[in-house]
Q: What sequence folds into this?
């Protein structure tokens, strides 16, 4: 039976109690943390930067899955990303919609140079054919099942068609990328993304909330 990678998003954490939330995830044997970076440019919100990332990786052994919802302006891709390339950063995702063609190619090259998974994300209104030519050079595709920028949104069902299509393209061409989904994952939606063909599931409020009493049970469901 297939096992799924689960990456809790700490975007929904109470930042005054972030250590407590991370301790709970560690106790529940979580291996990956999804780290959302937002710039109030590509998305209308602000979140973490390199400093909080440094504090986490210097105190925990989580594999870090960085999701950069940002536009790179006034920097080279390399100069912008360098501060984020820290211990245990295993994967970096950038948005297709936020990059020009040169930046996208530079991003893939940067990840290869630093031995990090190059991951490309697409928004709910972006079709798969927009990124098709990049698929052979990517290690992960992140399908946004909500509009990026805020936690706690409802799952957009048409995202399942994208996951199925990415799975079909992968199987047909023997590509090696993983398929990841982010947004609206909860008790009502997790099975549908598993059945559609994802490999990695990001969940925010379903896993990171001080009121949760059955965290291990929820993680077990997502893992399959």
A:
């Amino acid at each position: 039976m297939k096992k799924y990678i689960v990456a809790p998003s700490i975007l929904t954490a109470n930042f005054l109690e972030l250590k407590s939330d991370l301790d709970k995830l560690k106790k529940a044997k979580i291996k990956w943390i999804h780290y959302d970076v937002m710039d109030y440019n590509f998305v209308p919100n602000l979140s973490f930067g390199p400093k909080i990332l440094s504090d986490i990786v210097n105190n925990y052994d989580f594999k870090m899955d960085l999701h950069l919802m940002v536009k790179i302006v006034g920097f080279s891709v390399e100069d912008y990303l360098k501060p984020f390339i820290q211990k245990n950063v295993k994967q970096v995702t950038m948005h297709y919609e936020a990059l020009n063609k040169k930046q996208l190619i530079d991003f893939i090259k940067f990840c290869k140079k630093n031995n990090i998974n190059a991951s490309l994300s697409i928004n709910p209104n972006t079709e798969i054919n927009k990124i098709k030519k990049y698929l052979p050079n990517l290690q992960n595709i992140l399908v946004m099942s909500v509009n990026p920028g805020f936690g706690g949104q409802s799952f957009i069902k048409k995202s399942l068609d994208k996951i199925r299509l990415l799975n079909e393209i992968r199987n047909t061409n023997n590509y090696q990328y993983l398929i990841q989904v982010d947004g609206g994952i909860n008790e009502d939606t997790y099975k549908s993304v598993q059945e559609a063909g994802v490999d990695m599931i990001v969940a925010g409020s379903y896993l990171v909330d001080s009121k949760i009493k059955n965290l291990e049970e929820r993680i077990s469901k997502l893992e399959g």
The mean pLDDT is 96. The chain has one domain: 5-223. The helical segments are 18-27, 50-57, 77-81, 101-113, 159-173, 190-196, 215-223. The radius of gyration is 16 Å.
